[in-house]
Structures are given as structure tokens and as C-alpha cells.
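Entry for the shared binder. Reason: the reviewer on the internal report wants the predicted structure included alongside the sequence.
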Amino acid sequence: MAKKTSKLDRRSLLTGAAAASLAAAAGTLQSDVATAQPANAAAGATGGKVSVSQRGVYEKVPLKQDVINVAAIQSQLYSIDLRDRANTLKRNLNRILRLIDLAQNSPEEWGGERRWGSKVDLIAMHEFPVQGFQPWNRKELNQIAFELPGPESEAIGERAKRYGCYISWGCYAKEKDWPDHVINMSVLTGPDGKIVSKQWKARNILGLFGDGALIGTTVYDVLDRYVEMYGWDAVMPVARTDIGNIAITAVGAEPLLYTCLGLKGAEVLVLSVTGGSNAESAIATARAGRLYTMGVGNAVSPNNIGFPEGSGTRDEGTVIVDPRGTVLAKTDNHHEEIITARIPIAEYRRSRRVQELPMAILLPVLQQYDPVFRPNAFLEKLPATYQEAGELVRKRMNMK
């Protein structure tokens, strides 16, 4: 943790670093911005360099193969029942492990042999494949949240190691440095069975849930402290792997965020919103950002406590899309399904043209825009329930 500073000093330091980074990317760093930036803002835990494309060149590691096979699992939501936590968690985890086997064409009934299809190099799942989703209060969320690593991540890691593949999946997670917070986390597990990347959800969309609001912690909710601890580059993380640069986000309807992940070098973007319109967003995102996009949704879920069967299945389901916006694979319905596609990742990397943005004309708008919802709400108050979070949202809306 960085040396403690006042809220005002900390905010000035962080925004100064961000403004300077943006202006430098545009090649129009103005003297007043440079003067406002503290000398230490670009060093250490208080900020640091952001890895972003520079004239079309971005950070990467060598590929181990020229072509990869990817699969997206459109699974049902089976929420953990706190009245029978151990059994329902085991049921949900076993169901997901079986779907991973099916995605690799190696079900238990075939003796674990691959008798059909090809090995898959990346399997993508939606936001809450094991825990499901309920309007849990904070005490309840802490009962269902996962330690990372922990038994559940290790079970998924065993499958990743067995098949020599990467698996992306989402969960509510605990972090020892964030007591009582429950992090909305996207996880990338690698072929060695270990966690490659933990990617916090960037933010929740606020003011759209009636009297309530979400209480899982996101980067935006604790931005100042997050940047002090992890640096600006971790705000929008990209995992640089030997099958390509992979970014996962459970933020819906946020095209500017997807653009920034592409600018940071994401080559395969997984949109994993449970209950979101991932197919429509994936097609638009792939075409605009010129990157491969997997929009992974949930299936019709007749057994999810408290919700109608069709919750979160309102668009065209799950898709895998190429950089031209061409759909390579999609689900034909909203039942539980697995789709696959091949990505010529080496050819894409050689020929890719990173999305071009006219930063010199965008920066004045972005730097001076003042949103209704400012960051750090959960540094001020950690709401215990959806209702408390809703009250906090309404209070912030009136403090424009």
C-alpha cells in the first residue's frame, strides 16, 4: 500500500496521471497538464505506465501455435442455495466440470477419450457459471464467495491441466486485502492448472435496477485505492498468453471500455455478462474494435431460484465473431449449448490494424466530461444490501 495521503491529494495525483497518459497517447500533451502531474505519478504503486498500442504496436508474447480452437459454453444458471450450501455448490461445480468435458469432446461416458471433434485451446464461460446469481446481501455473498486459489478454482484448474487449455470463467471472489468486499471477478485459468489472470469487473451500470443496486465490488467503486495498490495498467487488464492476448469483461453496454481493451492489445475479448445482451454487443464490438470477440450468455434456466426461466436470454444467445463482424459460430436457441470456432491467431496478429482513434479531437471531450456517478463510492460506504446500494445510488444522483 502506498503512503497514506488525503482524499483530495490522492484524487489529484491519480487524475493527473490519467490525464497525462491520455494526452501523451494523443501526442498533444499540453504544458498545463504536464505541470499539474506530480513528479511521482508515473512511478510505483501510485500510477505507473499503461501498456497501450503505440502506432499499431502492442505488448505480446510469442505464440505456441498458429491456429487456436475456441469454445463458448452457454450454461444454465443454478444458484447456490444457502439453505443447503455444500450440496448445491457441489452440484453446480460438477455440472460445470461436465460441460468442460463436453466442450473438449471427452465425456465420462466415453472413458475420457476424445472420440469426436478437436481439442479446444480456450473455453469461455459466463459471469457466474458455478455460483449463479441471487440478490444476496453482503453477509450471504461472503458465504458463497470463492477464495482464489481455492477448491473451486483448483477443480477447474484440474480440467485445464488435463486438457492443456485455458478456461475463462467468472465468480464472486474474496481478496485478503479487501475485507468484507466481494469482488465481481473474471478468472483465466491456464494449461498448468493455475490462475493466469484475475480481472476485476471495471464497473457496474448504476441507476437501472429500480430501488436496488449491485453490491459486488468493481474497480470503479474503489478506484483510488485500487490504483494505489495495483497501478493504472491493472484497471483494464489484458492477459498476454501463448495463444494470444485475452481480456474478459462482465461489463455490459460499454463500447468505450471494449475499445480501450483493444487498444491495450486484446486480441480475443470475452464478453461474459450473465443476463446481458452479449451476442449483439459482441458483433458490434468485433467489427468496431477489429478483434475476435466471444459473447457468452446464459441458457434458459428453469431452476434458478426466484427468477423466471427466460431471465437474461433476451437476444440472440452466444456467439463467436471475427474482426470483420462475421459470426463464426452461434447458438441456435437458448438451451444449454456449446459452440466452437477456429481462430488463425498468428495470421491475425501479423495483419492486424489496431483501431485508429483521432485522440486530438476526442481528448478535450473526455477530459472535461463530468459523469453523474463518480468513482470511490465503496470507499465511503460499503452497502450491506441491494436496497442500501440503491439508496447510495439515488443520493449520488442528487449530488450532481
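Summary line for the report: The CA atoms of residues 187 and 198 lie 5 Å apart.
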